Amino acid sequence: MTAGPRRSAPSVLWVLTGLVGILSLTRGLAPGVTFPLLLLAQTAFTLLHGSRRYGWRAIAVFLGATLLISSAMESLSVYTGFPFGNYHYTLGLQVLGVPVLIGPTYAAIGYLAWTVATVLVGRVRRGSGPLVTVGTPVVASFAMVAWDLSMDPTRATIQRMWVWENGGGFFGVPLVNFLGWSFTTYLFLQAFALYLRSRGPVSAEPSGPDRAGDVQALVMYAATAATFLVDYVTGERKIVTDALGHQWRTADIYETSLLTTIYGMVFIVVLAGLTLARRGGTVPADPPDGPARRATAGATAGATAGVPASATAGVPAGTAR
User: Fold this and answer.
1) Contact 225, 150 (CB under 8 A)
2) Which residue ranges of the chain lie beneath pLDDT 70?
3) Structure confidence at residue 280 (pLDDT)
4) How many CA atoms lie within 13 Å of 254's alpha carbon, on the beta-carbon side?
5) Which residues, at least 6 apart from 9, have a Cβ–Cβ distance to it below 8 Å?
6) φ, ψ of residue 55 in degrees (nearest 5)
7) What are the two backbone dihedrals, phi and then psi, of residue 98, each rounded to the nearest 5 degrees?
8) I want to staple 261 with a disulfide (CB 3.0 to 4.6 A). Which of 22, 109, 114, 228 is the partner?
9) Which portions of the sequence form the region Disordered (predicted)?
């Protein structure tokens, strides 16, 4: 009964990947191609890809942690200035000063950043050690902030979707915004990593190596980066003014956005792609801690010497021949 849907899921993921690529390149250019439509396709990808890789319960934990932490931090900053600085939104239906689409956006891009980080560092699983459990969310948070670095000046200073009340040195956006992004994204990504370490799948990948799933996420992340190339090519050249009255040339903003995209997001895609190509079909996974690690090591040593694993248990390293 479930074999059909399981076999069709990879095809659906490729369709969603292609759809997101098309929508990213045509948003604002083709009639009816809107941000909510793009976000809907990205969210569908997150749910299907995440449920196949980690299970529905785990992806629900990811979404819950992301929506709760990101929305709380956004509202806190709107009312207090921490952690992103003083700003307010000007668009959409809002709850506690934050548009309802902001949380799902964190989740959709956050999942792509997470998957890219698992390629570069390793997949967190039950019993993973601290290097992967902490390193993966740290790298993922950098991949998230690389996106915000390219996005914020165009969406805020040019399009004024949100307004920085005290301005900032990066085309009207303050340094504290990016530090706040690092902090906030790390929090919900680390929460997900800790859940996977304690209650996630025992194996690195429940259904075996899923190289196609990694490639799909990389393509989606690259498509997100491509939107800033579209902005650079199609954006109107004019002078804009921030909340403090500082004037900025949009041509400079678009050019800087493209530069940060190339040497930030595109660099991450190239690095992850080379990592996948070098690794082939294998899945990097940090070995479990404690007794499981020692048992695995003993079994490996015994197999190498042609001795049953039980015969090598508890034998100091270097004594077996």
Assistant:
1) yes
2) 1-8, 28-33, 203-209, 281-321
3) 74
4) 19
5) 48, 52
6) 100, 155
7) -125, 130
8) 228
9) 282-321
What pLDDT was estimated at residue 136?
A: 98
Helices 56-80, 102-120: axis angle to 10 degrees equals 120
By C-alpha distance, which of 111, 142, 116 is closest to 48? Answer: 111
Tell me, what's the pLDDT at 296? 42
Over the chain, what HEC string results? Answer: CCHHHHHHHHHHHHHHHHHHHHHHHHCCCCCCCCHHHHHHHHHHHHHHHHHHHHCHHHHHHHHHHHHHHHHHHHHHHHHHCCCCCCEEECCCCEECCEECCHHHHHHHHHHHHHHHHHHHCCECCCCCCHHHHHHHHHHHHHHHHHHHHHHHHHHHHHCCCEEECCCCCECCECHHHHHHHHHHHHHHHHHHHHHHHHHCCCCCCCCCCCHHHHHHHHHHHHHHHHHHHHHHHHCCCCEEECCCCCEEEHHHHHHHHHHHHHHHHHHHHHHHHHHHHHHCCCCCECCCCHHHHHHHHHHHHHHHHCCCHHHHCCCCCCCCC
Name residue 241's beta-bridge partners: 247
Q: What is the largest CA-CA distance in the chain?
A: 77
Q: What is the pLDDT of residue 209?
A: 52
Angle at the Cα of 16 from the Cα atoms of 14 and 20, rounded to 5 degrees: 120
- Model pLDDT, residue 9: 73
| CA 67 to chain CA centroid, nearest Å | 14
45 vs 126: CA distance, rounded Å: 24
Which of 16, 97, 105 has its CA nearest to residue 66? 105
pLDDT for position 245 = 92
